[in-house]
Design brief:
2 copies of one chain form a homodimer. The first copy, chain A, is an all-alpha fold and about 130 residues long. Chain A contains 6 helices and no strands. In chain A, helix 5 runs antiparallel to helix 6. At the A-B interface, helix 4 and helix 6 of A face helix 4 and helix 6 of B. The structure holds a DNA duplex (30 and 30 nucleotides).
Chain lengths: ~130, ~130
DNA sequence: TAGGACCCTTGAGTGCACTCCAAGCAAGTA
DNA sequence: TACTTGCTTGGAGTGCACTCAAGGGTCCTA
């Protein structure tokens, strides 16, 4: 427990521009994520401004990982919905993540293949015997 | 030299639908590639239909590798132009491929990170202690 | 000579994942 | 009080990489 927290009894809250700075996601994107259901309805200040929690940041970090896997936004929304529905959706979530994992593995091996071709071409160019 | 070739003295030529079958690229995409300069002007039959050569197929295979690296179409076109310009562009081409190679390596390591997160989550779900 | 398969062109349309715009409210500072 | 900064909304716009439509030509077989 930090001093500030003990004093205020309030967990930290972040404005949209703080979250933008921490996550690298634009304010536009953050609002859009909320709108499409990729994250829960964010808490609001008395004047209606968003106040993100640490949990929101953690969720966004995980969503970021899903994004880098190449998972579509539609599938991420599906996943988010399953999480909101509760514990009984665990099997479906695992299935979704396993499917994604398989795709990532396939993608990595595709990239390794392409890497080999690039290496070969670059060696050709570096060597002298340059062709196409 | 195959028998057929010796007899006809003609290298094999492929129609657009043959190329579609061999490469998996749609006819639309093949025509579009030619239009934007991602491949040379394909030879035509006397009636104006495309006749692709083995060289064209090889080029398309290489372009396919570049595509899987995530290189943008604009950069691929740039590369194709450099190839058409001749031997004096070899250094620029190598530079372009090296930049791409670096991006691919970075992408692979991103994907490996994401894979670790997926493994962790899936284990959680499989374990029993399911959370979000 | 008719039918069907196959191909051509230009230009418009699609789906995705943002990204931006306009108009306006609220809080803090000079 | 006036100004600036930061935030709100719904809906429109953007860039990418295709993808399709319309209208027409050519070739082969019956």
């Amino acid at each position: 427990m930090s001093l500030t927290q003990t004093q205020t009894q309030m967990p930290p809250r972040y404005t949209i521009s703080e979250v933008e700075a921490r996550t690298g996601l634009s304010q536009h994107t953050l609002r859009w994520y909320e709108r499409i259901g990729l994250m829960r309805q964010v808490d609001r200040s008395h004047s209606g401004q968003r106040r993100f929690s640490d949990g929101d940041l953690q969720w966004l970090a995980f969503v970021g990982k899903l994004r880098t896997t190449g998972m579509s936004v539609a599938d991420m929304v599906r996943y988010a919905e399953l999480v909101r529905e509760g514990e009984h959706t665990v099997d479906q979530r695992r299935e979704l993540l396993e499917r994604t994992r398989n795709e990532v593995r396939a993608r990595i091996s595709e990239l390794n293949d392409a890497l080999a071709v690039l290496d070969f071409k670059i060696d050709l160019y570096t060597g002298k015997a340059a062709r196409q």
